């Protein structure tokens, strides 16, 4: 059986206890771990991925952080991903085992796909290790099923429109809107006009976690951060 040296390791939504056993073992056994960092408005370098790994006792000598510029213009970020992919391939050619860590699930709206796309183009083998995505953790924290039985689930990644939301509610679908900061005004206008059941989630699995189903009191007045999501259902469900 062919051995894969590059693994995209899913870390879960933020709670260090939600990392899978497979992910933990991969991080323990690999030679190097690449993971993203960002610079906060105060100038501090932060990384939720690093926090999760530190909480699980992963050897810091393996750490290879890469800094991602936070901007709607993805040009600089894409250059960083290209560089990380190039380094991973070089390590692979040297016979080293490399992990690329990703919050949530590495195969679900994860920006690490930019790295895997480059590796695929270069013919460099890799595997994904599944993790707990934020919306699954959100349902658990809220003590509710995200969907039930024959309900259809529609996931909208920050590009919600009034037409999409109205159609989904008319069809009786459950809607999960992620990356709410990208469509904040649309979502708030919809919530203020339509009679729907909503649960808002923010920073699930972290010490800044916030959950509410109170539209008027909590959701509408709140500024949506990037790491937020909203579950919508027709009121009768």
UniProtKB/TrEMBL annotation:
<comment type="subunit">
    <text>Homodimer.</text>
</comment>
<dbReference type="GO" id="GO:0032259">
    <property type="term" value="P:methylation"/>
</dbReference>
<comment type="similarity">
    <text>Belongs to the precorrin methyltransferase family.</text>
</comment>
<keyword id="KW-0169">Cobalamin biosynthesis</keyword>
<dbReference type="GO" id="GO:0009236">
    <property type="term" value="P:cobalamin biosynthetic process"/>
</dbReference>
<dbReference type="InterPro" id="IPR035996">
    <property type="entry name" value="4pyrrol_Methylase_sf"/>
</dbReference>
<protein>
    <recommendedName>
        <fullName>Cobalt-precorrin-2 C(20)-methyltransferase</fullName>
        <ecNumber>2.1.1.151</ecNumber>
    </recommendedName>
</protein>
<dbReference type="Pfam" id="PF00590">
    <property type="entry name" value="TP_methylase"/>
</dbReference>
<dbReference type="InterPro" id="IPR014777">
    <property type="entry name" value="4pyrrole_Mease_sub1"/>
</dbReference>
<keyword id="KW-0808">Transferase</keyword>
<feature type="domain" description="Tetrapyrrole methylase">
    <location>
        <begin position="8"/>
        <end position="211"/>
    </location>
</feature>
<dbReference type="InterPro" id="IPR000878">
    <property type="entry name" value="4pyrrol_Mease"/>
</dbReference>
<dbReference type="GO" id="GO:0030788">
    <property type="term" value="F:precorrin-2 C20-methyltransferase activity"/>
</dbReference>
<keyword id="KW-0489">Methyltransferase</keyword>
<keyword id="KW-0949">S-adenosyl-L-methionine</keyword>
<dbReference type="GO" id="GO:0043781">
    <property type="term" value="F:cobalt-factor II C20-methyltransferase activity"/>
</dbReference>
<dbReference type="InterPro" id="IPR014776">
    <property type="entry name" value="4pyrrole_Mease_sub2"/>
</dbReference>
<dbReference type="InterPro" id="IPR012382">
    <property type="entry name" value="CobI/CbiL"/>
</dbReference>
<comment type="pathway">
    <text>Cofactor biosynthesis; adenosylcobalamin biosynthesis.</text>
</comment>
């Amino acid at each position: 059986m062919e051995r894969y040296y590059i693994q995209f390791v899913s870390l879960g939504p933020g709670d260090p206890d939600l990392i899978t056993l497979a992910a933990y073992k991969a991080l323990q056994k690999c030679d190097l771990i690449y993971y993203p960092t960002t610079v906060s408005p105060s100038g501090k370098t932060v990384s939720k991925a690093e926090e999760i790994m530190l909480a699980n006792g992963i050897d810091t000598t393996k750490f290879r952080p890469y800094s991602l510029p936070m901007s709607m213009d993805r040009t600089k970020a894409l250059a960083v991903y290209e560089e990380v992919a190039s380094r991973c391939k070089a390590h692979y050619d040297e016979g080293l085992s490399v992990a690329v860590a990703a919050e949530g699930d590495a195969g679900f709206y994860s920006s690490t796909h930019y790295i895997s796309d480059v590796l695929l183009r270069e013919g460099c083998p890799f595997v994904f290790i599944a993790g707990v995505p934020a919306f699954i953790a959100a349902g658990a924290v809220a003590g509710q099923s995200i969907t039930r039985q024959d309900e259809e689930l529609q996931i909208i990644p920050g590009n919600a429109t009034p037409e999409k939301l109205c159609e989904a509610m008319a069809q009786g679908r459950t809607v999960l809107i992620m990356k709410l900061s990208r469509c904040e005004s649309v979502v708030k206008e919809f919530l203020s006009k339509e009679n729907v059941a909503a649960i808002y989630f923010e920073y699930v699995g972290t010490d800044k976690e916030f959950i509410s189903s109170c539209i008027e009191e909590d959701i509408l007045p709140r500024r949506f951060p990037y790491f937020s999501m909203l579950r919508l259902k027709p009121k009768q469900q």
